[in-house]
Amino acid sequence: MDHFLYRNGLLHAEDVPLPEIAAEVGTPFYVYSAATLTRHYSLFKEALAPLPNLVCYAMKANSNQAVVRLLGDLGAGMDVVSGGEYARAKAAGVPGDRIVFSGVGKTRAEMEQAIAGGIRQVNIESEPEMSLLSQLASAMGATVPVTIRINPDVDARTHEKIATGRAENKFGIPISRASEVYRMAADLPGIEVVGIDVHIGSQLTELEPFEAAYLKVAELTRQLRADGHDIRRLDLGGGLGIPYTRTNEAPPLPLDYGDLVRRTVGDLGVEVEIEPGRLIAGNAGLLVASVLYVKSGEGRDFLILDAAMNDLIRPAMYGAWHDIVPVAEPTPGTETAAYDIVGPVCESGDTFAKQRAVPPVAAGDLVAFRSAGAYGAVMASEYNTRPLIPEVMVRDDQFAVIRRRPTFEEIINRDTIPSWL
Ligand SMILES: *Cc1c(COP(=O)(O)O)cnc(C)c1O
To answer: Is 106's C-beta closer than 6 angstroms to any atom of ligand 1?
Structure first.
């Protein structure tokens, strides 16, 4: 459920009509609903109760300071994958002991940053990384809690670019080598093994792959405990999918996922961490754009928008579907027409949808992309020197710009012409 509904003939974000925001900030822009973010976080908390747990929001889905502050104030932990995200979490007021550090290629500087600033745990992805962390932590006189990410060799049955749990993927250590690597870890100074980490992919629309992975983690927990390791925390990753269309079958709900977690690892007496990103932020955001032109082509019509692939890359990158709806509510029974919905960037890949049936729209009309709150703004670029688009947060009847659109001057001034040129 989200908080983007038609009221009085106009699509609203909570209690704010979208044209009101468009008039103030100009299109295109992203808009996020505070109530939806809060609700999605709470759903996970309810789903995991009564297990001791920490819901660590995967910041890479949407790392705007306002989003991180809102979730952090609700008590969320943060899953970060870079020094930049770590700094963002801290800047939004999240304490180090609620931040977990994931990622397959952490640099020396990032590890030092996390050790110095405080970290709940580092999720180790390889032996060389583990040795480096051990060296750095020892040199800094610290002991860093770690989990080791295991690769369970499970097919997440999702898009190949976001599947991470198969043996051929770059992530984690093979589960078959876990006892050896945990033995190594136990002997290293500067780190303390506290648990196991797993994350098999994103946008999972079935529970079975989670179940297969978590059963393997449960078995490994017993085995590692028998080997003398104090496994007391399981980081079960993120990945629960969201409905991107209103018509296709609904992915499992957080409550079903919570049942699964309890069923698979609930009797181990561990603290559970999860790292949801997409499910918290995805349906909490829209991308709003204007129709620039309606263009008739050879056998097909194009809706040319002022938003482009640099603003929302998911369709170009993953062939992703976003529902695209007019902001003015179509009258019931309106006939739809098929359009290719495209942006102005000079690539044919700048196509949001092909032959998409939408109610008739005209130049100047506003349209909204649903489910654009996750992996939208964070993946944007300034390709074609199109400024990053503004982000807006709504709570009830208030809205605020939470990142403004940079000026051309600001963009140009980031470059430097060498004095010798
Ligand atoms: C991307 C990622 C997540 C979040 O995945 P979602 O599908 O957005 O829930 C969590 N943990 C790790 C390690 C990731 O790489």
So the answer is: no
Residue limits of CATH 2.40.37.10 in the chain: 4-31+282-412
Residue 27 to residue 389: CA distance in whole angstroms: 8
Q: In CATH, which superfamily holds the domain spanning 4-31+282-412?
A: Lyase, Ornithine Decarboxylase; Chain A, domain 1 (2.40.37.10)
**Which atom of ligand 1 approaches the CA of 197 most closely?**
13
Ligand 1 atom nearest residue 123's Cα = 13
Give residues with Cβ within 8 angstroms of 4, minimum separation 6.
Answer: 11, 12, 13, 33, 36, 286, 368, 370
DSSP for 149-192?
A: EEE------S-GGGB--STTSSSSEEGGGHHHHHHHHHH-TTEE
Classify domain 103-274 by CATH number: 3.20.20.10
Read off the pLDDT of residues 362-416 as tens digits, 9 standing for 90 and up: 999 999 999 999 999 999 999 999 999 999 999 999 999 999 999 999 999 999 9
Catalytic-role residue among 1, 346, 417, 421: 346
- For the question of residue 56 being annotated catalytic, the response is no
Asked if residue 241 has its Cβ within 6 Å of ligand 1, the reply is no
Give me ligand 1 centre to Cα 57, in Å: 9
Please state the length of the chain: 421
- Testing ligand 1's pocket by substitution, the residue of 60, 80, 206 carrying the most ligand atoms inside 8 A of its CB is 60
**249 has pLDDT over 70:** no
Beta bridge partners of 30: 287, 391
- DSSP secondary structure letter of residue 260: H
Residues of the chain with CATH 3.20.20.10: 103-274
Q: Which residues of 71-92 are buried (b: 16+ CB within 10 A; e: fewer)?
A: bbeeebbbbbbbbebbebbbeb
pLDDT tens, residue by residue, 113-161? 999 999 999 999 999 999 999 999 999 999 999 999 999 999 988 888 8
Please work out whether the CB of residue 251 comes within 6 Å of at least one atom of ligand 1: no
Distance CA 302, CA 322 (A): 17
How many A from CA of 154 to the centre of ligand 1?
16
Cα gap 344→360, rounded to integer Å? 20
Q: What is the pLDDT of residues 90-100, one digit of tens each?
A: 999 999 999 99
**Beta carbon of 239 within 6 Å of any ligand 1 atom:** yes
